[in-house]
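Hi there, hope your week has been kind to you so far. Please have a think about how the structure follows from the sequence. I've dropped the whole record in just underneath, so have a look:

_____
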Amino acid sequence: MNTMEQYRALQFSSLGAMRSCTCILMTDTSNYKAHGTGVFIQIGAHYFLVSAAHVMDRHGEFFIFLSQEYEIIKPGGDTYINHSEDRAGDTLDIAALRLDADCLPHILRSYSFLQAEDLGINHIFQNAEFYTFLGYPATRAKPKYKTDIFEVTTFFHFTATLGIEHYAEFSRNPRVNVVASYNKKEAYDSRKGTYGTGPDLYGISGCGLWFTDPSDLQTGIIKPKLTAIMTDWSVKNKNIIMGTRIDVVTGMIKKFLDIDFPDSVIVRVS
């Protein structure tokens, strides 16, 4: 097995850690509708659900599946959100929900929470397939044919980020945002174990972009780092998915809460 094959195997091995702290956000309890994706993070004594702001705008309506069959919960708590009158033009589009004591014990039974060391603060993005975005497109959440089973499957894609010279084309700032590729014609189908045409990415907003460090091959430690929250599948170019650095998320949380967490040297939230 060559080094590239070993690294790809490491990426596949990292998926379980990513899935454990990622959830699908649904609306309409009578006729389930995929609304977005979220990632769970713990900072100090605070527990958060992080997603895109346009997803979090419907807080109070969306719910999360729990581990028990048909068990759901509408997460409660305080939202810290990037307010915008024009979500379509919002290049930050980021929000965090600080989970309250009523819902937290139920969520902890079903999901893991990322710790501070799992967050890729001050990450320098590289133009290589060291990254994975993983979430729940709407097309991967639907009733199973001729059954009463509602089937939900994650979708992941190994990706590379674009060089900063391309960011202006998409009205993005490399100090704040990340722009990554989506090769829809070469997407991995985990249900079949083959590569083929991938899904449309509607509903995946709020998913994480993860960095799997090639040096982990030497240590044998599986420790993917969350570098960004992906918020937008480009209208101009369907081969592009865009997001906001995790530095912005933690900076926004620090703006509202007195927490002990390192400052980003790349971006400061005022």
